[in-house]
Structures are given as structure tokens and as C-alpha cells.
Structure prediction request, 209 residues.
Amino acid sequence: PKQEKVFSPLFDPKHERAIFQDTLYTEVAEGEILLDNFVEHIVRGRPVEEILYATVPTLRNGVQVIRDTGESLAPFYQDQQALIQNMQTMLGKDLVKTHAFYGFPIGTRQEVKSYLYENLNLIPGVPVLFLSDLGLLSANDLSKRDERKNWQYICELVGELGSRAIAYLPVPELYWENTLRKNCDLYFWDRPNKWVYQKSIFNISAQQI
Prediction:
């Protein structure tokens, strides 16, 4: 009898919580008192109007997950859904907001901004995770160039909201662009048995996170 394929998650379940903590955090000023600033005021005889604290990472603000359902992400649909379910289990469903999109409209920065704010209802200050190729796997060179510009706008606009932009990318680091790195924290997200789909585009060996 034909054996059913066993689903294997992209992230090792033993390390998944640590991966979320390392990549999806929000920094809050709840650490130790910043004594240097405190002491300086005392030495100079100035009143201490505000006590400053070091920032510490936390997951309690949750995450906003933007899931790309375009053709280039087809091999990862099940992985996306499993990842979101695991996030909801670990963080709580109320702390994991999800949106799906099939290609962002390509246009001016203002047009992208209108779409981003009006259609996705992003919450300021909450990290935004993109499960997407950020346009890097587009087969058409002209379309790819437009998409990459679009994603540059998107990541900048997320930053303007006071949120961190993060992307789990099924694209090796060799192909990441500096314009994306500047405004988005990028993490490689793939496994060898998925790489067959992308191999014809990049013609390189499989890699693992």
C-alpha cells in the first residue's frame, strides 16, 4: 500500500519557541535602571524627572502575520498554516493577527501606503511578519524589479508605524538585497525537499536553516 507523506515542519519543534523569541520580539523599557543617566543628573545637581530603563525583548505584544498566497509560495502553503497554528498555540490566538494576500498592488509609494493601511489594518508597534518571497522569486525581470521596489516601500512604511518588519524567506541569503535588509529583518526559511521547486530558478544547492 502507498504510504502517506508525513508532514515535517520547516522549523524543528524543539527550537520553534526560541526562534519566535529571537525573531518576533518587541522591545519594551522594563529592564534595569540606566544608572549612567541617573548618576549624571545627581552629580550635576539636576532633578531626575524621568528614570530610564534598559529595553528587554518580549512576545506579549504579539505579531501580525502577512501570508503570501502567490504562485511562488505554493510549495509552502501547508508550512505557512502550520507555522501560524503553532504561533497561536504558543502566544495565544488573540496575539496572532493574520492576513493573506495574493500580490500587493504595484504603484507609487502613496498607493502602496493606502493599500497597506486601509486593507491590512496594521496595529502600530506590533511586529509584522511576512511569510513571502518579497518578490525575489518572480519569473519576469520587469515584474521582479517593480515588486522589489514595492517591498522596499512596504518595509519602510511598516517602520513608520513604529513596528518591526520581519520576513521568513524561502530564498537563500545570497540573493537578499541591501534595500530590503535595511528596513526588514530577514531569515532564511526552507528545507531541502522543498528546494526542488526553486532550484530551476537559482540553480544552486539546497540549504537548511
Q: What stands out?
A: Residues 196 and 203 are 10 Å apart (CA to CA). The chain is about 40% helix and 15% strand.
